[in-house]
Structure formats: C-alpha cells, structure tokens
Amino acid sequence: RIAAMLSIPLLMACLWQYFDKDDTRLAQMVEVSTNPGMTTTIVLPDSTRVCLNSESTLRYPSRFTGDFRQVELVGEAYFDVTPDKKKRFVVDTECRSKIEVYGTSFNVEAYPEDGKVATTLIEGSVGFIYEDKEGRMKKVNLQPLQKIAYEWEEGNVRLYSTSGETETAWKDGKIIFNNTPMDEILRMLSKRFHVEFVVKNEHLDEYAFTGT
Predict the structure, then answer these.
(1) If you count Cβ atoms within 10 Å of the first and of the last residue's Cβ in the chain, which end, N or C, has fewer?
(2) What's the whole-model pTM score?
(3) pLDDT digits (tens, 9 = 90+) for 58-85
(4) Phi and psi for 136 in degrees, rounded to 5?
C-alpha cells in the first residue's frame, strides 16, 4: 500500500522531466495544519525549514516557479529560509501584510483573531509590508533582533529591539516570559495548551512575570 502511494508522485515527477520542465501545470498547493497544542516541522521544495506552531496553517506550492517563492500563513511559524538572491521569499498573511526575504531566520505570528501581526527577525534582513490607516502600502526593513508589531485593523505599527528568546522559544518546546504582562501570558498558555482562562481578579492584569 505504501509503495503504491509513493509510485504516484514518482510517476508525476518522471512525466514532468520527460515532457516539459517549463510546464507549471503540475505544481499543486500543499496545505499543512496543526491541531491545538501541536507543533510540526516542514521542509519546503527549496529546502527552507518551517516550524509551525499550534492552530496554524501553511499553504505552499509543490514546487516554486516564477520570480519569487510565495507561501501563505495563518497562525505562527518560524522560518529558516534557504538563501536565493534571484528569488525572494514572500510570506503572505490574512492580516493586510506580508514579509519579503531572500534568506534569513525569523518568526511570524499572524492569528487573525488577535488583531495584530508580529514579525521577529533573528538573522539576516526582512522587509515588512503593510497597509496603513489611509490604505497605502508601506514597508519597514528590520535589522537582526528587531520586532515589529502591526495592528492591522487600525493600521498602527511599533518597532522595537528584542532578544528573540521569548518569541521563538515555542519551537524548542519552551515558554519564556521576560517581564511579560499577565494578559499576554494567558494568551500564550491558551494557544499552547488549548485551554481557556477566566480572570476573576482584574488586578492580575497589572502584573508582569519573568521565568522559563
């Protein structure tokens, strides 16, 4: 049964090489989704590695064609992009924004229900393209260990420095708080463990915590 499953993509690959390597009709969209509390690692056709966080979806073509490598993200993912100066790598989100790179490591958090998109650059450089309050497209270039937060409904952006540990610890199975406000802590724990928190004491929102 396994051999039969493997023979189909192998046959398609052979036919593609035999007939016309410029034919893009055989390129199909692949969709990978994670269940609540689950993470997974994906290797894209260009050898780019993607760690996909809980309750997230990544869509990408079975092979990259054209002048750029484009993927679609809903949720959170850490990208370690294979360098290719001739083909930029583009991450599209549903939150009026996208990220352009050529080869670098960065984290993107884009859950539509949160009302914001956050991109944290670890190595290399990225361009964050977004729609402002007037509906105009703008671009911000990030430097390593910078994070940009974009409130896509209001069009507001905020750029600041970070160690990157808090934003990327999830891919290593950890959660790190660095003077993190309580509401943010509960949001992170809710996504990680698929639970709902009810805060009965509003004064808890005044506290922040640090720990691993």
Answers:
(1) N
(2) 0.84
(3) 999 999 998 999 999 999 999 999 999 8
(4) -90, 145
CA distance 172 to 78: 11
- Dump the DSSP string for the chain: -HHHHHHHHHHHHHHHHHH-TT--TT--EEEEE--TT--EEEE-TTS-EEEE-TT-EEEEESS--TTEEEEEEEEEEEEEPPP-TTSEEEEEESSSEEEEESS-EEEEEE-GGGT-EEEEEEES-EEEEEE-TTS-EEEEEEPTTEEEEEETTTTEEEEEE--SHHHHGGGGT---EEEEEHHHHHHHHHHHHT-------GGGGG-EEEE-
Asked if residues 21 and 37 have their Cβ atoms less than 8 Å apart, the reply is no
Instruction: Show the CA angle centred on residue 106, arms to residues 104 and 107, nearest 5°.
Output: 160
Fill in the amino acid letter for 197. F
| 92 neighbors 98 (Cβ within 8 angstroms) | yes
CA–CA separation, 209 and 198 (whole Å): 18
Residue 103 or 128, more confident: 128
